[in-house]
């Protein structure tokens, strides 16, 4: 007798508070399709940076599921996001990646579009053919301090304003909009996108898995529960240092306090200016700055790490450089993680910065995380998997992520 599988609704309702998700929410293809609709179409997602297209004519093509997007800078130096679908017979105009173009020309029948997306020329369609209503379809987008977010749905969530209000002032000194991409790395993790994001939202695993990162990254406890006296003493010292640094940074005009929108919302994010360990300057092998030219208008190397995460991204902004990462689901068991290292637009490799020092910590960390996510995916696919309890001490953010995920799934009719 064949046993029917539980519905998505059944899976959502079976999740026990304080525990990881039921296996099917990580492994099933129908759940993946639902996730793409709910979280990667109808919510704001981070897909690119202003500095991906630094000059007029620069284009950057990103695929999200079956949707292909052209991020470009037009002749008026304005950023636009367009659907990469010719209005003739639907042909993809550009391949994924970066290009420099004067016009957007469909390779199939040479329909030609201005960088505004307006249709300029449609050969052999007749002299009475109306080009005015056949421009490329536009996409809802917003640049948040130089990070480009899009919403592919018809009703973009209004609470993106909370993210904008939190980050525009915080990111202004780094001038991300005019930074330079020094290096990019793509890695495909063999795991569901939720496992990728869960792994990023906790540092329970850091001490045993990320020796390079732990030179500079301090595993700060975001709660007030302690396992033993030693842990309590360390946490209280960290809290005192955070309070001291945050007060000094805020007084100097650098926004630093926690701003979080994690539950009962659409746009999920958290930001805080984190302290850096060791030399205290940057996330490098020795925690000193990798670039002699600081970001934007920065004049200090001791302003910590402005950390920002969303439901498909995480970012670290430091005095000398920034690291940004976006996660784009490819299937129920594969996720593209695209990491970029940013420096001052005038910084010169080999003169102002050494590329290995700039990138080695997060290259190692990203590869280590990919291995952990693959192990997690293999585990949730195992028939013996039973959702386990999150640590009240180090994994509270994961529980909030699970609550947010389930609430939005149910609100979407699942």
From TrEMBL:
Q: Which domain of life is it from?
A: Bacteria
Q: Which CDD domains match?
A: RHO_alpha_C_GbcA-like (cd08884), Rieske_RO_Alpha_N (cd03469)
**Is the keyword Iron-sulfur in the record?**
yes
Q: What's a Gene Ontology MF term here? A: iron ion binding
Q: Which InterPro entries match?
A: Rieske_2Fe-2S (IPR017941), Rieske_2Fe-2S_sf (IPR036922), Ring_hydroxy_dOase_asu_C_dom (IPR015879), Rng_hydr_dOase-A (IPR001663)
- Using the record for this protein, list the coiled-coil segments as residue ranges, or answer none: none
Pfam family for this entry, one: Rieske
> What are the transmembrane regions?
none
State the needed cofactors, names only.
Fe cation
Q: Which residues form the Rieske domain?
A: 44-150
Cite the entry's keywords alphabetically. Answer: 2Fe-2S, Iron, Iron-sulfur, Metal-binding, Oxidoreductase
PANTHER family listed in its UniProt record = CHOLINE MONOOXYGENASE, CHLOROPLASTIC
What is this protein's record name?
(Fe-S)-binding protein
Task: Say which species the protein is native to.
Answer: Acetobacter cibinongensis
